[in-house]
Amino acid sequence: MSRGGGKGLSLKDKLDGNELDLSLCDLNEVPVRELAALPKATVLDLSCNNLVSLPSDFCSLLHLVKLDLSKNRLQQLPVDFGRLINLQHLDLLNNRLVTLPVSFAQLKNLKWLDLKDNPLDPVLAKVAGDCLDEKQCKQAAAKVLQHMKAIQSEQDRQRQRKLQAEREMEKKREAEQRAKEAQERELRKREKAEEKERRRREYDAQKASKQEMEKKPKKETVQTRKPASSSRPPQPARHKHSSWSRSVLRVLLFLLFCVLCTLAACKLTELHRQPLCISVNTLYEDVLAALQNHKTLQNMLQHNSQQ
Fold it and tell me: CA neighbours within 13 Å on the CB side: how many for 232?
C-alpha cells in the first residue's frame, strides 16, 4: 500500500492479530475495500494521516470495535456514522470537527470517547468535557451519547410535528377539495334542474300553440257548415256594394238632370233655334215616339200628359 492511499503493500502485512496499524502512512483516503476484506481487524489505527473526510462506505465496516482517527484533518463524520454499532472505543483527538452527526446517538456500545483539540460547538464541548484520563473519557462517551440522543429525539419530535402539520395541511386541502367538488356538483345539479324546467316550459308552450292551431280550423269548419239561409255576405262587402250602387245612381240622376235641363232650355227658351237644340229636340221626339210604341209606357205617357 502506497502512502497516498493506493495499493502496493498488502494490508495483511500490517495486521497483528486483530489490530491493524495504518498510522503515519500519509494517507489521504481510507482503503475501505481492503479493510472490508479483513473482518478480523476489529482494532483500526488511522491516526497521524492526512484524512480530510471519511467515505460513506466506511460506515459499512461493522466489525470495528476500536477506531483511532486522532491527529487528522477531519472536518465532519459521515451522516450514517451511527451504523458502526459495535464501536466501543473512538479517538477523535486533534481534528477539525465542529459537530457530530445525529446518528452518533446510535453508537449504543460506545464506552470511550476523546474529542479534545477540536473546534467543537460550545454546547457540545461543554457536554464532552476533558478526556484526561480513562474515567473522563468514559464519562465523555456517556454524556455525548446522551446529548446526541436528546438532539435526535428533538429532531424526531420536530419531524413528527412537521409530518403532523403536513398531514393536517393535506387533510385541509382534501376537505377543501371535497367542499369544492360538492359545490360544483350542487351547481351542476341546479343548472340541470333549470335546464329541465326551461325545456318543460318550451314543451308546454309548443303544446299550447299546437292545440290553438288545431282549434282554429274547427271554428272555420263550423262556420262554413251553417245553413245557407242564415249565411249572409260579410258586412264590409255588402257595405262596399251599397256604396258603389249609390255612386252609380247619383251619376245617373246627375246625367238625367243634365238631360232635362238641356231639354227644357231647348224647349222653353229662344235656344230652340240653335243647331244643338234642334238635334236635342229631334232626339227627344224620336225617343218619345219609340216609347209610345210600348203600351205600358204609352199609358204612363198619357197619364203624364193629362197631368
Answer: 7
How does 255-278 read in b/e, with b if 16+ C-beta sit within 10 Å?
A: eeeeeeeeeebbeeeeeeeeeebe
Residue where the block lists cell 237644340: 277
**Distance, CA of 5 to CA of 55 (rounded, Å):** 13
Q: How many CB atoms lie within 10 A of CB 98?
A: 13
Give which of 57, 61, 31 is closest to 43, Cα–Cα: 61
Residues 86 and 62 sit within 8 Å (Cβ to Cβ): yes
Q: Are 128 and 120 in contact (CB under 8 A)?
A: yes
Q: What is the pLDDT of residues 4-50, one digit of tens each?
A: 444 445 788 889 999 999 999 999 999 999 999 999 999 999 999 99
Q: Is 23:68 a contact under the CB 8 Å cutoff?
A: yes
Report phi then psi at 68, rounded to 5.
-115, 110
Give the total residue count for the chain. Answer: 307
Nearest-angstrom CA–CA distance, 53 and 257? 147
Phi-psi category of 129—alpha, beta or left, where left has phi over 0 and alpha has psi -120 to 50?
Answer: left
Q: Look at residues 125, 97, 120, 100 and name the one whose alpha carbon lies nearest to residue 110.
A: 100
Q: Checking DSSP bridges between strand 15-16 and strand 19-21, what pairing results, if any?
A: antiparallel
Which carries the bigger pLDDT value, residue 23 or residue 267? 23
The rounded distance, in Å, linking the Cα atoms of 143 and 260 is 157
Cell 282549434 -> residue? 215
- The whole-angstrom separation of Cα 51 and Cα 27 is 6
